[in-house]
């Protein structure tokens, strides 16, 4: 008799059908969506900076006020499955976006590996390069724009 192959929930359950716990577990905890973003007024293109929201614990990549985040930070966005068609503003390595676009999770994902060691080993969280937004004048934020190449940040000059 051939044993039935076990398929993990992210391969069998669409994002919009996941339980709250499954949905939360798709987040790989990279912290990238907590970096400040700038938007071009003309093209509406979104640019990420290496400036972290002041409520992000940069070492752990955890929000310090997760349960009350939207009351504390007006610009904080809670991701929900009914926004799936708007996921293109997320970093292209964000696991929600990757799963939505490719139907697969990356091979370093904590759900695939069983822990976060591989993503930490590969330097895929913002802890290695983010700095507190409050340490830089807002008029200088443009000089902190980055782009990700294979998940790693590089300075990006938009001029
Ligand atoms: S970018 Fe995506 S995977 Fe990374 S912390 Fe934000 S929601 Fe989670
Ligand atoms: S309030 Fe928390 S979840 Fe929201 S952007 Fe800031 S650190 Fe991220």
Automatic annotation (TrEMBL):
Q: Which domain of life is it from?
A: Bacteria
Which InterPro entries does this entry report, sorted A to Z?
Puta_zinc/iron-chelating_dom, UCP006173
Q: Into which family does the record put it?
A: Belongs to the UPF0260 family.
PANTHER family attached to this UniProt entry: UPF0260 PROTEIN YCGN
Q: What is this protein called?
A: UPF0260 protein MACH16_17700
């Amino acid at each position: 008799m051939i044993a039935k192959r076990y398929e993990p929930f992210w391969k069998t359950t669409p994002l919009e059908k996941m339980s709250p716990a499954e949905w939360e577990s798709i987040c790989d905890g990279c912290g990238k969506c907590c970096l400040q973003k700038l938007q071009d007024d003309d093209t509406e293109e979104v640019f990420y900076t290496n400036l972290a929201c002041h409520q992000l614990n940069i070492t752990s990549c955890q929000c310090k006020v997760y349960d009350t985040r939207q009351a504390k930070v007006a610009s904080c966005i809670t991701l929900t499955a009914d926004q799936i068609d708007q996921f293109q503003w997320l970093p292209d390595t964000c696991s929600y976006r990757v799963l939505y676009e490719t139907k697969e999770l990356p091979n370093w994902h904590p759900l695939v590996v069983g822990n976060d060691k591989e993503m930490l080993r590969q330097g895929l969280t913002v802890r290695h390069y983010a700095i507190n937004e409050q340490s830089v004048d807002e008029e200088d934020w443009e000089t902190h724009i980055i782009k990700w190449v294979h998940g790693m940040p590089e300075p990006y000059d938009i001029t």
